[in-house]
Amino acid sequence: MSYMALYRKWRPDEFEEVKGQEHVVTTLKNQITHDRVGHAYLFCGTRGTGKTTVAKLFAKAVNCEHPLEDGSPCGECASCKAIQAGTSLNVIEIDAASNNGVNNIRDIREEVQYSPTEGKYKVYIIDEVHMLSIGAFNALLKTLEEPPSYVIFILATTEAHKIPITILSRCQRYDFRRISVETIYERLAELLRREGVEAEEKAIRYVAKAADGSMRDALSLLDQCIAFYLGQTLTYEKVLEVLGAVDIEVFNDLMRHVAEGHTMEALQVIDDVIWQGRDLTQFVTDFTWYMRNLLLIMVSDHTNDQLDISVENMESMKQIAELLDVDSLMRYIRVFSELSGQIRYATQKRVTLELAVIKLTTPQMENNTDAILDRIRVLEKKIEEGALSLNEEQLAALASQRETGDGGENPILRPAPSIDREEILKQELQPAECEDMDQIMSSIRQIKQEPELRGKVGSGTMSLLDQASINIGHDRKSIVLSFEGTEKGNMAYRQFSKDMHREALKEVIGDLTGKSVEITCQMKDSLVETDISNINLSKVNFAVITQE
Questions:
Q1: Which DSSP symbol is given to 517?
Q2: How far apart are CA 74 and CA 88, in angstroms?
Q3: How far apart are CA 412 and CA 430, in angstroms?
Q4: Element holding 345 (H helix, E strand)
Q5: Tell me: the pLDDT tens digits for 304-341?
Q6: CA angle 308, 310, 313 (to 5 degrees)
Q7: Coil, helix or strand at residue 471
Q8: Is residue 150 packed enough to be buried (19+ CB in 10 Å), middle (13-18) or exposed (0-12)?
Q9: How would you class 501 by CB atoms within 10 Å of its CB: exposed for 0-12, middle for 13-18, buried for 19 or more?
Q10: Which pLDDT score, from 0 to 100, does residue 415 have?
């Protein structure tokens, strides 16, 4: 068979071709140049990150007859060529998955007694070393501790936690990182040029992202895509078809229907995905990451470094983010995170997926805290749109405080403490001060409602303002943002602790009111409002006060 898979054909022949593991390569090269080569190494990391490749390059470098000044092998001497061809007697590769018994390790102990016939070192590369039995580890222990001076052990594993501590303590450990999408993309683009294959940048980037940090997986996926459309330009749509993936526009449509509570429309999107032959397990994984990206967009105004998506996709996702709040989106992520562990082994994948989508669109199916918050969000939205008409008692119940009873998940409602906020303000503040606060609160409500003003502060930042109680400062001129000590409250507090976000909000308020107001933030264990500095201004009818 003349054809060779891309990941084998383009396996790095020198250290410079190893991508994304510079911290490991530099250390090993320094050890070679300064004659500080150890006797045992442990290479840890996920699949396809270069553990075995670096082990072979290291074996080639320590046995090279004419090494380069930086410690790299020359690749031209007899030793380098033999190791490259896999015919060298000095490099012994062992697959511990199929050779994991005590007798296999005893064979190694007998072999290490004989020095190499040519070259400096005998290098034993034991792949998937965590698969060795306890007896095999014990048999390896003494040899690993005090091997002959001409023997080097390189142990490679994807699960370092399964290796006994007695073995770990005798090895130099190197952790191989997941390779970044950008690094994988650059490598794939380079190899495609060498192969003479035309491909769209968007297509290559999707393959790089789908590889999940593994260079070998990326090359295998690319090989699969090229083979399916042999001789044709590799486009983004073709990659999606081969890999059974879904375009981001499908995710946007699904999330829009979920946010609006349109169950049947959301299920129709799922039906279309199924009839297109997409892989449902991959769909769940990709949609979970899509929601993760949406969450980052909502909570931060500077996410370009964390999100590897195009400008067009970023803009479309920002429009979807306007339909959501952080609480609801976190519930969606929780539901789909649980689903990703279930659907892999489900016999009825479609039914399992559809049930999860129905949970998203109908939060009344669940009675946990997240679902109840989502139901409140839907009710509030309908009230704002005039779809519901509630009396004062119902509105008060909707806005009542929440607490958990008996340590359980189900919340119980407790009426807010009865405080006459307006009376307190009338006693403590001058009419002019009340009027100023009225204008400030009106401007904040305006900023929340108008997308253009939200954009000046940051849509993600403004969505977190819902976690704050907006109170009056002790100087009666400033406002204080008080946050509860919850997970979301802590997130919002960290965001508004940054001067840039408070200054942006202050600037927009100043443009709308012509007033300069200082903004500070604080954490509070409880927002029970007992004094003037803890009066939640959003609960005060300033129109009554200003008539005094």
A1: -
A2: 16
A3: 39
A4: none
A5: 556 666 667 778 888 888 888 888 888 899 999 989 88
A6: 110
A7: strand
A8: middle
A9: buried
A10: 46
